[in-house]
Amino acid sequence: MRERAWAWFSLHAQGKHALFWLCFLSYIEPFLSPIVPEALMTAMIIVKKERWRFYALLTTLFTFLGGITGYFLGVFLFNEFATPLLQLSGYQQYHDVSQTILGGNIFLIMFFIAFTLLPDKPFTYLSGFLGVPFFAYASGLLLGRSMRVVLVAYLSYRFGPQILEVVNRYFFWFALAVLALLALYGIVQMRILPL
Known about the structure:
Layout: H1 2-13, H2 18-28, H3 38-47, H4 52-89, H5 92-115, H6 121-130, H7 134-159, H8 162-192
């Protein structure tokens, strides 16, 4: 499966529509697609090493725009569906507590989630759904995602396809450790705030 996926990325990295695919995958990944755009970006850097900065910039820009789109989709879904349900059900206080917990920590949460390969879609939608501060959300997303993309781009430029094996082998464990720390932090925060 991994070999077939890499073959697709390698093929499209050399095609005349490579930039379109990079921008498209980068845009839809934060709110829709499970395919990380760094795979195609790495394949494109292997083909044209001298353009690694440009590919990193495009990937960062379009993943950031996709994250902003996901946030506003969350806002839309909340306004259309959740607001009437919360008013009818009397669960508004739970929404407010969740908004306080996530909103107070959204910069750090989005930074860690965007930097790791952990799925950020739930946090993207939830941030808009709960109406967390947009600037803190966008700043954490941009900083975390740009650091990740530039790191992957530079390593791809410097070491070529060999770096993929290292990333595949160790990044999962690093991401799992970060997730465990975030879960622990969330548990501590939930005990501090009364329900």
